[in-house]
Design goal:
This protein is mainly alpha-helical and 356 residues long. The longest helix has 25 residues. The chain starts with a helix and ends in a 15-residue tail after the last helix. About 2% of the residues have low confidence.
């Protein structure tokens, strides 16, 4: 864990330096610090070796298969093209991990820069929520997740054309991108606390019925082998559910607080709350439906934007600092337990390509 802890500290420090400019005159220096922060996370992910369960199980065999002209037909064509492009420059499978790391963090950092009220906290949360480690394992799908988070800007702009272009291109990397398309139409819907409670209650009551229907659908797809397999464990468990519920309640409390003061709740706030509600429902269903945790990643990643947005609803600076402190402490404990103790996503021990 030493590598990951050091990486996180350095990435957070440099991102903080990029924001520390009282006069906002020297943008070149600010952006240099920002890109250094991004580069730190990229490098650790890019030069890893046999880190992540799918590293040797999926990506290395696939790269070698493409090299020999015998790729796995079940993997989307866009990822095939990406591998072939990499192979124009190198026959070393490390190349695909380098390229995918650059793509993932490019879009994550752009999303944070453009959407987050507290970019430095968002970067910490990227690691603290363990989405960083999920990327080290489920690389293709997390590229989709990163692009979706970035593409929320087009949802806000009501630019359906650009949003669809990004999602359709991503679907050639991983089909889960198609699941993100309906989220475009959630923007503008006011998620009042009462409405959120009713939706959550209905989802809880209908869990047995919806779970059975979803299993029937999964059995008709190429992912039917997940049912009763080692992947069908509901491993996200109660901790993830509890975290999602707490964040949702935190967001809704400030929704009520703002309304009592006759302050307008912006569409953006309500939209991120909607994504969090979906994440909470999916976390609740996770132990009965295989693959659902993977679907939850798409909506769940927005938590790195939502939490800073909630904190900024509090006008008292001292209270903001207290909130931030507790968020950092709690997510640090969560990451250390999930990754450091349970080795989620098989990211330990950390090795580099220079140790092959």
């Amino acid at each position: 864990m030493v590598t990951y802890i050091t990486m996180t500290i350095l990435a957070v420090i440099f991102s903080a330096l990029s924001n520390y400019d009282k006069n906002k005159k020297n943008n070149t220096v600010k952006m240099a610090f920002w890109y250094i922060s991004e580069a730190i996370l990229i490098i650790v992910a890019a030069i890893r070796f046999d880190v992540g369960q799918d590293y040797m199980y999926t990506y290395v065999p696939y790269f070698k298969g493409v090299l020999k002209g015998n790729p796995n037909e079940d993997i989307e064509k866009g990822f095939l093209i990406l591998n072939k492009i990499v192979q124009l420059f190198t026959t070393d499978y490390a190349g695909i991990f380098i390229v995918c790391s650059v793509i993932f963090f490019h879009y994550i950092y752009k999303a944070i820069r453009e959407q987050s009220e507290m970019p430095t906290l968002s970067i910490f949360l990227l690691v603290g929520t363990t989405y960083y480690f999920i990327f080290l394992n489920a690389m293709r799908q997390m590229i989709v997740v990163a692009v979706f988070l970035y593409s929320i800007k087009f949802i806000k702009e009501r630019n359906l054309k650009k949003f669809l272009i990004y999602m359709l291109i991503c679907s050639t990397i991983h089909l889960s991108a198609l699941i993100c398309i309906p989220f475009y139409f959630f923007y503008g819907i006011k998620l009042r606390p009462l409405k959120a409670g009713i939706i959550l209650g209905i989802a809880i009551v209908l869990k047995p019925i919806i779970s059975k229907l979803f299993l029937i659908i999964v059995k008709l797809t190429k992912y039917n082998y997940y049912i009763d397999s080692r992947f069908d464990t509901g491993e996200a468990g109660n901790i993830v559910l509890l975290i999602n519920v707490c964040v949702l309640l935190f967001a809704l409390i400030y929704y009520i607080k703002k309304n009592k003061k006759n302050e307008v709740i912006e569409k953006d706030y309500s939209y991120y709350c909607s994504l969090q509600l979906i994440s909470t429902i999916l976390a609740w269903y996770n132990n009965t439906i295989p693959l659902l945790n993977r679907i939850r990643w798409a909506t769940g990643i927005s938590i790195i934007i939502l939490i800073p947005l909630i904190i900024k609803q509090e006008k008292n600076v001292k209270t903001q600092i207290v909130y931030t402190f507790f968020i950092v402490v709690l997510y640090s404990i969560y990451a250390l337990y999930t990754v450091g103790i349970n080795n989620a996503n098989s990211v330990l021990p950390y090795l580099t390509i220079f140790q092959r």
